[in-house]
Amino acid sequence: MKESNLFWQHLRIAGFVPGLTTGTGSGTPPPNAAGGLIGVENGVVGTSGLGFTSLIVCFSNLPEKVATAVDAQMDDARSATGQIRAQLQATANPFTDPPRPRTTWKPV
């Protein structure tokens, strides 16, 4: 298991992140509120780390409006500089959750 997956498994074991604590799926990144994933990695210059060289927390699938608001409120409001940075998501998120059955409401 990769180190970033062990990170999530350890957070689950400690009770900070919900989900399985052992077996398949225990180290998968958790979903964020926008239906994307939360990831953790070490930034390496010249890769997808956006110029960071330390630990990075990533959020995928964030709508531009949300990302812009977070950057404006917590950083310098510029997507290419500061401590909060953004890039266009080039691929779809991996499948992580089976579809939930829809509930049909009937008037009484």
Mean pLDDT: 82
The coarse silhouette is globular
Number of domains: 2
Counting DSSP H or I runs of 4 or more residues, the number of helices is 2
Number of E-type strands: 2
Q: Strands of the biggest beta sheet: in what spatial order?
A: 1-2
Helix content range: 10-25%
Kindly provide the radius of gyration, computed on alpha-carbon positions and rounded to a whole number of angstroms: 17 Å
The separation of the N and C termini measures 51 Å
Strand content: 5-15%
- What about the largest sheet? 2 strands, antiparallel
Question: Ranges with pLDDT <50 over ≥5 residues?
Answer: 98-103
SSE string:
HEEH
Estimated structural class: alpha+beta
Q: What oligomeric state do the depicted chains represent?
A: single chain
Question: What does this protein look like?
Answer:
The chain is an alpha+beta fold and 108 residues long. The chain folds into two domains: 1-29, no CATH class; 31-86, no CATH class. Helix content is 20%, strand content 9%. The chain has two helices and two strands; from the N terminus they run αββα. The chain has a two-stranded antiparallel sheet with strand order 1-2. The protein is globular and about 40 Å long.
Which labels suit this protein?
single chain, 108 residues, alpha+beta, 2 domains, two-stranded antiparallel sheet, 2 helices, 2 strands, globular
